[in-house]
Amino acid sequence: MQTALAELREHLRRVRAFSRNARLLLLALGLLGVSYGAFTTLFTLYIVEIGYSEDFLGLLVGVGTVGGAVAALPAGLLCDRLGARRGLLLGTLVTALGILIECTVTIDWLLLAGGLIAAAGVTLLYVAQAPFLAANSTEEERTHLFSVAAALLVAVSIAGSLYAGGFPKLLQALWPSLPLPTAYRLTLLAAGAVSAGCLVPLLRLRDPADAPPPLGSRATLTVCLRSGAVRRLVLTGLVLALGGGLVVPFVNVYFMREFGAGSGTVGLIRSLGIVVQVLGSLAAPWLGLRLGLVGGVAAARLASAPFLVLMGFLPFLPAAAAAFALRTFFVYLSDPLHTDFSMRIIPPEVRGTANSLTFLSWNATLALGGWAGGQLIVRAGYEPLFLLGGSITVAAAAIYWLAFRRFLPEPARVRLARAGAGLEGEGRS
């Protein structure tokens, strides 16, 4: 118990020590989370309500996914050329433009154009975020910072989702003649207006005094391609993403078809998944303190594998939902550690481009995994799908450990972290 309290005090001390830039970006991420939650909850319903069918909705989602993947490398190069601070600001403006188009027009090709623009902006935001946080934190606090950033965005998105679920009904109660598509549109635009407030803290960000000078695009790519760290991050990312990529796109359908769950039950299970995402992200520093960054990622991913398999074999919905929640917890427990480790081993002057390459590899694998998972379900059913996903996850954890176990002196870092937290010599409760 004393150990747990000491670790909590240490975590709070690290959070209070976050730099001004880090605090401003966290505030911006919190405001962006409102729009993120509302958009992911309501936008697909809005598209259907304005008269489009599921095939166009699938096309819109696919175009956005491909657009984000295509934009990844240019976004990384732009981030390294302009700096992460300008990348964050530009990514926010581009995202806002794309969402504004998507929420104000009804012509199909304009909706697709808006989706492409929004996807490019979101990609630039993602690519720039980790390098900026890494440049504005010390090694001792970095895991805590990535943990809080990941948890904050997800936690605030819950509020955005709840708002998106209730505000259209409120608008129609106040104005009974208001068409439902208009209520949806106003709800999305209002959420966007709240998130636009993130421009205030983003404009107050400052470049770090020790920021490395930018390289040219060719030199940046050369450094990335010659870096063993970057190559290993890309290759291990392909395997790490594949296990979940096979299964996760079909979880909702699986619960509905195999257990007869209704949309309300599935929504409740997904809400549980969001809660454990937050808990997993916040618990990441605790795991990193004990096992180090590489060991923590490998152990958390390995721990997620049995629950991924159990989802496909447990006979009762509550048990399968619990397995889904535990698998989600362990995956998000590993994410801040993976991000922290990535930023430590990538040369600072190419962090944006390297981050874009890993983003591209993950998303390409997720797309391939979704296609392959669908083919496997049609031919063999769900049980082989979950078994294969779990097996690949075990292999991915082992490959990650083998690839990176000697990149950092992990045990020494753990000992230093424990000494700094005043934990040396204490027993574990």
UniProtKB/TrEMBL annotation:
Signal peptide residues on this chain, from the entry's feature table: none
Transmembrane segment boundaries: 24-47, 59-79, 88-107, 113-133, 145-164, 184-203, 233-255, 267-287, 307-333, 353-373, 385-403
Question: Which superkingdom is the protein from?
Answer: Bacteria
Supply the Gene3D superfamilies for this chain: MFS general substrate transporter like domains (1.20.1250.20)
* All residue ranges annotated as the Major facilitator superfamily (MFS) profile domain in the record: 21-408
Matching entries from PROSITE patterns are given as:
MFS (PS50850)
- Tell me the keywords, alphabetical order: Membrane, Transmembrane, Transmembrane helix
MF terms (GO), sorted A to Z: transmembrane transporter activity
Designated name of the protein: MFS transporter
User: Species lineage, top-down?
Assistant: Bacteria, Pseudomonadati, Thermomicrobiota, Thermomicrobia, Thermomicrobiales
